[in-house]
Amino acid sequence: MSPMQLGPFGVWISSRVLDDQRAGEAAKLAEELGFGALWLGGSPKLPQLRPLLAASERLVLATGILNVWDNEPAAVAAEYAGLASEFPGRVLLGIGIGHPEATSEYANPLGTMAAFLDGLDGAPTPVARDGRCLAALGPRMLDLCAARSLGAHPYFVPVAHTRAARARLGAGALLAPELTCVLDDDPERARATARAFAERYLALRNYASNLLRHGFAEEDLAGGGSQRLLGEVVPQGSADAIAAVAREHLDAGANHVCLQAAGVEGVPRAEWSALSHALLA
């Protein structure tokens, strides 16, 4: 388990929906509800963590993820050093390679990630191995996680991936999958929200290939996702039903699960509160 005390559950929210005021609101709420970490998505820059750190006292703030194509390792290391000094034990650098469809320069993801880590190691203020984790889906990237970071932060994955990732990483590494969910008691509306969320990721070949490796067929990926796929990767319904899927990830080897509420504008206060009651009460 990470010395940062991530706890078993955290929340994930995109930086694109937070200004400084909403960032402080989100961090305070997550901490008050008992979540151990808040993962800031949407390819954030490290300084975007500052208002969330300043608004909370114990909450770990993680990037989920900082994109290697948009950042220079030495600059990232300097930014990390400043935040980690001001907020010790509360900053986790989540790093990712993104996906081919988003980056024209995309090539050799494993080599590019290794080179980025080399840059962090060689910076005047290096980022220690236990201060960083990597987004990882495939076996070789998981191997790199185990060798050169605290562990893995997979996104848009079923429980089968968590089980396989734990076997690949070994017992000591952090495994912190993201779990998108839809809190809605209307089954048809909830499924439509889940499908609208999933459709984008199912069109990206790294996510699609990963699902095909872990128990799904091409027909499951069509039309925004089969009911079975959506039930596993973007669970819907009550907070208790979603909590059951989150606990399945823990049972499969995750030591931290961060939940993202889909279909919500701004800070998902009601959704986080319901999930906290189901998971942490």
In DSSP terms (H or I, runs of 4 or more residues), the helix count works out at 12
Instruction: Report the structural category.
Output: alpha/beta
Average pLDDT works out at 95
Radius of gyration: 18 Å
Identify the quaternary structure here.
Answer: single chain
Model regions low in confidence, pLDDT < 50 over at least 5 residues: none
**CATH domain class name of the domain at 9-178 and 245-269:** Alpha Beta
The proportion of residues forming helix, as a percent range, comes to 40-55%
The CATH architecture of the domain at 9-178 and 245-269 can be named as Alpha-Beta Barrel
| CATH homologous superfamily annotation of the domain at 9-178 and 245-269 | Luciferase-like domain
Number of strands: 11
Report the order of strands and helices.
Answer: EHEHEEHEHEHEHEEHHHHEHEH
Biggest beta-sheet profile: 9 strands, parallel
